[in-house]
Amino acid sequence: MSKFVDKRTACSIFGHKIVTVRNVTSHFKEYKCTVCNVELTNDLQDRKTFLTPQLKEINETLFNHHNRKHLHSI
């Protein structure tokens, strides 16, 4: 990539290269762009949105609750 084009500009032109980083539950996931490292999650309408500190905390709580619930059902 040219040193005159930064990573965010490349993503704004060509689009993000999103990979799943973590499955919070079967419905909620955390994603990351492999180019610019922007973090995303999905919302209640299953659209991708930026992962804010508040959403990160909510996802962590959901993850812990989901794992605890499934460990007790085993």
Poorly predicted tracts of residues: none
Q: How many strand segments?
A: 4
Briefly note the structural class of the backbone.
alpha+beta
Biggest β-sheet, characterized? 4 strands, antiparallel
Helicity, in percent? 25-40%
Number of helices: 2
The succession of helices and strands, N to C, reads HEEEEH
Estimate the global geometry from the Cα principal axes: elongated
Compute the separation of the termini in Å: 49 Å
Fraction in beta strands: 15-25%
Overall mean pLDDT score?
87
Please state the CA-atom Rg, rounded to the nearest Å. Answer: 15 Å
Output the strand order for the largest sheet.
1-2-3-4
Protein described:
By secondary structure, this protein is of the alpha+beta class. Strands 1-2-3-4 form a four-stranded antiparallel sheet. The radius of gyration is 15 Å and the shape is elongated.
Write the layout of secondary structure elements.
Elements: H1 7-14, E1 18-23, E2 29-33, E3 39-42, E4 48-50, H2 53-73
Brief summary of the model shown:
The protein is α+β, with helices and mostly antiparallel strands and 74 residues long. It has helices spanning 7-14, 53-73, and strands spanning 18-23, 29-33, 39-42, 48-50.
Notable traits:
74 residues; alpha+beta; four-stranded antiparallel beta sheet; 2 helices
